[in-house]
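Support reply, case 0932

Customer input (verbatim):
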Amino acid sequence: MAPRQKTTRVPVSLPEMESAPERWLRNIRLSGFTLTMLGLVILAVVVLAPSLKLLVEQQQEMAALEVEVGEQRDSVDNLEDEVARWSDPAYIEAEARDRLLYVYPGEYSYLVIDGATTATTADGAPISDSIQTTQVDWINSIMGSVLTAGLSTDVADDIVPPVIEDPQ
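Our regenerated output:
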């Protein structure tokens, strides 16, 4: 039997696994052609970007104008319908009776007015049916307002309007 040879043990390490992007980046070789093509792509983007922006803006403007044209066409259609209605004698008669209170000769028109209620303003004050004259001197009121605004050093919120005296 042959004598056994002494073996030495050496620690073994597994190779590190690379990811696909790392492997891809490690394999990139930059040549003159690659740099030239990269420069041309960047130049094309710089040159074409403003034109593309202008194209997109024009497309948006055209779409807005088409919407506006559609609205104008709808308006024209409505006006044409209105003109067609006014060419109908029955419609004209109905509008004259309704809006202008016209009647044919021999007919009687009665307007029913509710006399039980009195007309009031939005705040509930009664509305008078007679003409009244005011007793206010408007020239002095305007001059007082101008002088108060021009000569005052107070803040606008602190200014009190002048009291108007009744000459009665």
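We compared this against your earlier run and they match. Two observations from our side: The helical segments are 20-26, 32-86, 89-99, 138-151. The chain has a mean pLDDT of 84. Please reopen the case if you see a mismatch on your end.
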